[in-house]
Amino acid sequence: MFNRRPTPLPPAGRAVVITGASTGLGQECALQLARRGFRVFAGVRAAADGERLRAAAHPARLRPVLMDVTDEESLRAAAAEVAGIMGEQGVWGLLNNAGTCLAAPLECVPPERLRQQLDTNVVGTVATTQAFLPQLRRSRGRIVTVSSGLGSLAVPYLGAYAAGQFAKEGMSDVLRRELRPFGVSVSVVKPGAIATPIWDKVRQAGEEALDGTAADIADQYRAPFERFLRRNEERARSSTTRPEDFARAVFRALTAHRPQTRYCVGPDARAAAVLSRLLPDTVLDRGLGAATGDQRRSA
Question: Where are the domains of the chain?
């Protein structure tokens, strides 16, 4: 007798809220989930982005919702809007996707920029989850939070971003354990390098951070940081992992009979998860130094 895998849950009739759906992975996810039958509430910060999304999707399955994850009033209004439409059914899923990425040497990251990064990536994730939890509890639904390979392994020049990813990993573990008695599952999706518009913003923000740092400090980092940016961009352009792969992982997290706690998307994300568990810190330090072009050696 053969053991058959449990049948995935049907998306029809289930509603999902997605933050950061204006561009990149969030946009791809919103469109893919709507095509597959979910009712999608796509969180955007500008009405024009919402109209563009609506025009590209099934008109009955995607509804833009103005939402700023750093603004509690905006989140309350968005949650009330969704609740008014869904009623007692509530939402089935929440995809915490909104985030920003600041790449720069940590010595060159102004404290206010670090606070902004963490406010969006960490505090915004918690605040959004809090706003929609009453509906998710009623539906015994699912929370899916987007982290990255940097939530397992921090690399040079992405310290501010990695801090947020590690925080989201820890918070997701806590939420999974706290919400288990209510039947709400919590998963993390960890994409590796994928070619999206975010990389243009990463370069610009990093260069601005160095330009705002005292020259005697910034000049020590400029050459290796430029090498890092070039290699990062090349890695993203040559990556075989596509936005569709990310969307499929999110779909599985939302429909699997027993969702995994973590979904790694792409070979680099899977490698980071494995290497961070198996290799000692000193070996990782040497390997990451070589990978980012740091040829210096201790005396």
Answer: 15-287
* CB-CB contact of 5 with 249 (8 Å): no
Q: Is the separation of the CB atoms in 44 and 65 below 8 Å? A: yes
Q: Are 232 and 199 in contact (CB under 8 A)?
A: yes
Which of 239, 199, 236 is CA-nearest to residue 100?
199
Assign 197 a pLDDT band (cuts: 50, 70, 90).
low
- The residue written with tokens 């509804």 in the block is 63
The active-site residue out of 157, 161, 221, 263 is 161
> Closest Cα to residue 192, out of 138, 151, 225, 223?
151
Instruction: Look at residue 297 in the predicted model and tell me its pLDDT.
Output: 44
Report the run of H or E that residue 86 belongs to, with start and end. Answer: helix 72-86
User: Is the predicted pLDDT of residue 214 greater than 90, yes or no?
Assistant: yes
The Cα–Cα gap between 125 and 123 comes to 5
251/120 Cα distance (integer angstroms): 24
| Number of neighbouring beta carbons within 10 Å of residue 39 | 23
Instruction: Indicate the CATH number for domain 15-287.
Output: 3.40.50.720
Tokens 């009453």 label which residue?
134
CA distance 157 to 178: 34
Q: Maximum CA pair distance of the chain?
A: 72
**8 Å CB contact between 123 and 70:** yes
221 counts as catalytic: no
